User: Which sequence fits this backbone?
């Protein structure tokens, strides 16, 4: 029953959110790495990179936001792994609650925790000089893209969270996702890259997402980047959701 599922999920989300609020260092840690990268690139490398009329902090912020999300979902996998190893899933299976409620609680907690980290990073960027004349609709569009991207990566995180044999294994999957923005348009224009690297950069999901967010922030036409970004996010979400639920049923059956 839908009402049963939502009431169970709400209670279980409160449980996982309490774990986050009791260890705010996880959110702080999630934000520290992207902030450190932002400081390094803006104040050390930024002067050597030509981004035209766009200030470098404005240029690279979209990529930093994606790195923030990739850093944050590692903790989602860690929390799931901890619950699996602690027997929480098995214990809740013996209770009259929706089987998927605990899984969705971790997913919703990931969305909230990552949203907080993103707000912190944007706040630091504003202090560093980030400015945008984008209107409310553009900001809502950016928020929607980032939410969809977070949701897609969170369902990817569910898989190692359920199947990993160690804590390191649960979070290691996030490392390639954190470094993927470096081979994209996040920090330098793809035109400056050698041929094979440029071909990869221009045809991987991060570049279209970064370009769409950047154009929304700078009030430029988003062109096809927005639709390509949405297609990537939805495609990743659908595939990850299917595999995550299949893995969950196998582990809890």
Assistant:
């Amino acid at each position: 029953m839908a009402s049963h599922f939502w009431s169970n999920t709400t209670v279980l989300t409160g449980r996982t959110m309490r774990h986050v609020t009791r260890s705010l260092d996880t959110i702080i840690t999630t934000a520290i790495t992207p902030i450190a990268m932002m400081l390094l690139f803006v104040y050390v490398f930024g002067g050597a990179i030509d981004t035209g009329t766009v200030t470098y902090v404005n240029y690279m912020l979209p990529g930093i936001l994606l790195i923030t999300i990739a850093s944050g979902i590692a903790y989602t996998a860690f929390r799931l792994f901890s619950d699996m190893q602690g027997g929480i899933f098995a214990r809740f299976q013996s209770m009259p609650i929706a089987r998927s409620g605990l899984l969705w609680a971790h997913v919703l907690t990931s969305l909230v925790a990552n949203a907080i980290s993103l707000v912190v990073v944007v706040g630091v960027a504003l202090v560093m000089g980030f400015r945008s004349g984008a209107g409310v609709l553009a900001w809502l569009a950016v928020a929607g893209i980032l939410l969809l991207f977070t949701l897609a990566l969170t369902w990817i995180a569910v898989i190692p969270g359920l199947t990993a044999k160690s804590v390191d294994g649960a979070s290691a999957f996030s490392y390639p996702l954190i470094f993927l923005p470096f081979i994209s348009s996040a920090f330098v224009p793809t035109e400056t890259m050698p041929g094979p690297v440029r071909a990869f950069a221009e045809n991987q999901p991060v570049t279209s997402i970064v370009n769409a967010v950047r154009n929304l922030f700078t009030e430029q036409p988003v062109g096809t980047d927005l639709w390509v970004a949405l297609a990537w996010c939805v495609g990743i979400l659908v595939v990850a959701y299917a595999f995550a639920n299949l893995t969950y049923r196998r582990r809890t059956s």
About this structure: The chain has one domain: 2-252. The CA atoms of residues 118 and 138 lie 16 Å apart. The chain is about 75% helix and 0% strand. Residues 2-252 form one domain.
